[in-house]
Amino acid sequence: MFDAKIRPLIDPPLNAVGRGLARIGFTANSITLLGLGFGLGGAYAVSQEHYGWALALVVVSRILDGLDGAVARATEKTAFGGYLDIVCDFIFYVSIPLAFGIADPANLLPALALVAAFTITGISFLAFAVTAAEQGAETSAHGEKSFFYSTGIAEGGETIAFFLIMCLLPMHFSTLAYVFAGLCVVTVLQRTVLAWLSFRS
Q1: How far is the C-alpha of 86 from the C-alpha of 146, rounded, in Å?
Q2: Per-residue pLDDT for 201 more than 70?
Q3: What is the distance between the alpha carbons of residues 188 and 166, in angstroms, rounded to a whole number?
Q4: By the 8 A CB rule, do 21 and 67 touch?
Q5: Per-residue pLDDT tens digits for 62-103
Q6: CA distance 124 to 85
Q7: pTM of the predicted protein model
């Protein structure tokens, strides 16, 4: 929901750093994989109940997730890079709730509910992107992307915000997980309505 609004603010500094990383030899795909590594490190920290470390690792991971696109814009954007980025994003998204489930068995049911919600949200996102590509639809609301990014109430920014709150308030994980799972369902409904309006003809 907020991703498109903050893009004009975060893209200029990300692009500047991305150009610097490209000059010293980093590739966009290496930044993507590095971001995933930090993200999985954050998930491991959650599973061991080291929530301060988890918070720091998640922040670094998401900064790198923003920088991979900046490096690609400074060098070369590829279809595989877009594919790798979204796959790594969803691996990270699933790893955090699963880690909370490992940390405390009481978290297992809300963790699985959130993973299920992420799954259907991801399916709706990718299905919309595929259909939009077939229809020749384009958007730059989320910056330069390899494929169509459809909007919704639960996007990347909201997901990271909830993950950070979960790390700060792990005792409230269950409530936060159910709330965000509900927002994911709303997002799927939003995209379904948008798809019907956009692709019914």
Answers
A1: 10
A2: no
A3: 23
A4: yes
A5: 999 999 989 998 988 888 998 999 999 999 999 999 999 999
A6: 17
A7: 0.85
- Locate tokens 């003809």: which residue? 201
Tokens of 140: 């730059």
Q: Which one, of 10, 11, 8, 4, lies nearest residue 151 by Cα?
A: 4
Neighbours of 197 (CB within 10 A): 9
Q: Which of 50, 38, 40, 51 is nearest to 166 (CA)?
A: 51
Structure tokens at 66: 């923003």
Please name the amino acid found at residue 18: G
The secondary structure of the chain, three-state, reads CCHHHHHHHHHHHHHHHHHHHHHCCCCHHHHHHHHHHHHHHHHHHHHCCCHHHHHHHHHHHHHHHHHHHHHHHHCCCCHHHHHHHHHHHHHHHHHHHHHHHHHCHHHHHHHHHHHHHHHHHHHHHHHHHHHHHHHCCCCCCCCCCCCCCCCCCCCHHHHHHHHHHHHHCHHHHHHHHHHHHHHHHHHHHHHHHHHHHHHCC
